[in-house]
Write a structure and sequence with these properties.
It is a single chain. It is built from 7 helices and 12 strands. By secondary structure, it is an alpha+beta fold. It folds into 2 domains: about 50 residues; about 190 residues, no CATH class. Strands 1-2-4-3-5-8 form a 6-stranded antiparallel β-sheet. Strands 10-9-11-12 form a 4-stranded antiparallel β-sheet, sandwiched between helices. Strands 6-7 form a two-stranded antiparallel sheet. Helix 6 packs across helix 7. It is rod-shaped, with a radius of gyration of 33 Å.
């Protein structure tokens, strides 16, 4: 039952006019509510589409991650110079031993420093002659992944030699620990500096090395410098910007505190 209230002080026509005005206002409110509801539905549709797209992309990234088969050299420190030469380095004593003994050819170059506990890096030449640019990039990598990073040093005594100059042979009574080698003959010292960046290659691999090399092979990258922030915290920021696997990013970064270069 609809209840209608009339003002006895007004005429029938005046009461009718008043209700007519109320009806118009009510109609406008209904129309406004309908428009607001329609806008809300459209906005919800956009959000749902965006959510669905993000879910699809996340699933695609996960599938890509599962599909991508890591290359053999990704178990070591590695990068490609701006000229394309593959460079591998030890992460610890065990991998130092492996890269020198199992992944070094006669035409390659072996890089190291005078500082104990530093990694050995191998520039795999494949019979070609690397330019000074590539030599400098490897020297920078050796410096950046050595204890110099953690100690806050800007450079290091980096040298390179031929593989036949690297040996386990020592004098009687002497002993070399795992990952350590003797260097025979002339050592070729080369200028170097702390120089590091992390990027994602076209096939989704995490590559860390000198800025010049990383920017050549990665569309997006992040430059790093020595600092006090935790590696894990910086790795999360890198992942947010570049994507990639968080564990691979952490493994690729220099040991010790760091920060993103601005």
């Amino acid at each position: 039952m609809v209840r209608i209230e009339l003002d006895i002080k007004k005429s029938v026509e005046e009461n009718a006019a008043a209700y007519f005005e109320k009806a118009k206002k009510a109609k406008k409110k209904i129309e406004g509510a309908k428009k607001a509801l329609e806008k809300a539905r459209e906005k919800l549709k956009v959000l749902e589409e965006k959510r669905d797209t993000e879910i699809i992309l996340a699933k695609a990234r996960q599938e890509e991650k599962i599909k991508r088969k890591p290359q053999w050299y990704e178990k070591f420190r590695w990068f490609r110079t701006s000229e394309g030469f593959l460079v591998i380095g030890g992460r610890d004593a065990t991998t130092n031993e492996i890269v020198v003994k199992k992944h070094t050819s006669p035409d390659d170059l072996v890089f190291h420093t005078d500082m104990a506990g530093s990694p050995f890096f191998i520039l795999q030449s494949e019979g070609k002659n690397p330019s000074e640019q590539s030599l400098n990039e490897v020297a920078d990598a050796v410096c950046s992944f050595s204890r110099a990073w953690k100690l806050g040093l800007g450079s290091q005594s980096v040298f390179h030699v031929k593989p036949e100059q690297v040996t386990k042979e020592v004098k009687a009574g002497e002993y070399l620990t795992k990952g350590a080698f003797m260097i025979k003959g002339k050592t070729n010292y080369i200028d170097n500096k702390i120089n590091a960046a992390v990027g994602i290659t076209g096939d989704g691999a995490v590559m860390a090395g000198p800025v010049e090399a990383v920017m050549k092979h990665c569309k997006e990258y992040v430059e790093l410098e020595q600092g006090r922030e935790k590696t894990s915290a910086i790795a999360k920021r890198i992942q947010k910007k570049l994507g990639g696997d968080i564990d691979e990013i952490i493994r690729a970064m220099p040991s010790g505190g760091c920060q993103i270069k601005t």
